[in-house]
Design goal:
alpha+beta, five-stranded mixed β-sheet, elongated, disordered N terminus
Amino acid sequence: MRLQPGALLRFYSLCGILVQVAATKNKARGSQGQFPLTQNVTVVEGGTANLTCRVDQNDNTSLQWSNPAQQTLYFDDKKALRDNRIELVRASWHELSISVSDVSLSDEGQYTCSLFTMPVKTSKAFLTVLGVPEKPQITGFTSPVMEGERMQLTCKTSGSKPAADIRWFKNDKEVKDVKYLKEEDANRKTFTVSSTLDFLADRNDDGAVVSCRVDHESLNSTPQIAMQVLEIHYTPLVKIISSNSWPEEGQSIILTCESKGKPVPEPVLWTKDGGELPDPERMVVNGRVLSISFLNKTDNGTYRCEAKNPIGRNSTEYVLIVHDPNALAGQTGPDHALIGGIVAVVVFVTLCSIILLGRYLARHKGTYLTNEAKGAEDAPDADTAIINAEGSQVNAEEKKEYFI
């Protein structure tokens, strides 16, 4: 009868155990206090796991590694399981180290290191396999989006173990208000994670980069990122810029109509007071620019600039007031008439004062009687004193002494 290879391998393993037990029977007492030492291992799916079992003091007692299914992997330096991924790293009386390459999720579990004393002593090492999340994808974006529409972007990744974390960013600024969903995959080992970003489209979001970032311990601090550039269509935004803040008659003015929209607005339409431009020879439109030369008062009015695209239209107005440079100079220069009037008033008042003063002095011109006149003390005034003085009245005038 011919034994199967698997049965033959198990027979050799059993024989080896019996031989080793018999060889170490007399040394069992010296190894009673020794226990194998192991450590739990975590490895990323597809990586290599190193399992090490050590004994500080060992009296030539055999060491053995077994997988979660209790299949012997290595007995000392002898390979027991035909798996090309499993290799011997080091074998001695104090250490048995093996490696498992290209680790899969099915390799996860509890591995056993056995020290064949009497009784056999064991130590457990749990191998944790991390499931790497797949590259995320963003769905739900249909280009273009109209301003004001609601957008729902969903980011999804599968195969993570444990469940991955998803974060949203808009132009490198994190968005917090999102929905998160975690589901177990069919293999009951990994997870599919999705997150939804919900917001209203705004013109300021046009060209913004929305990114979905997946963080997981298996990625070694290098997250996986999916990006989506937003395209938002919106009605034009219009404004008029004037080249002259105080236009005067005879000057020129340039009015520029700036319009921003997506799609790009069509050439703008210029009107004046609700109608066409009245003087095409002086009012020239070149694209978005309206030039008016040799301004005059008839150019006063409301100028409207209108822009439109397939989404809609918008307009703005500019009120033009042409100023008279002469009136402006009269208002800002010195008022000569006013100055002349003031000077005339001052001269008139001065002359009047001089005349009144002269008349006053003339009316109060006095006479007095000298010591030669007699009876002055009894006279009521100077003239009477002279008349009553000694001498005839004929000489009265001669005796008056005038003064001013």
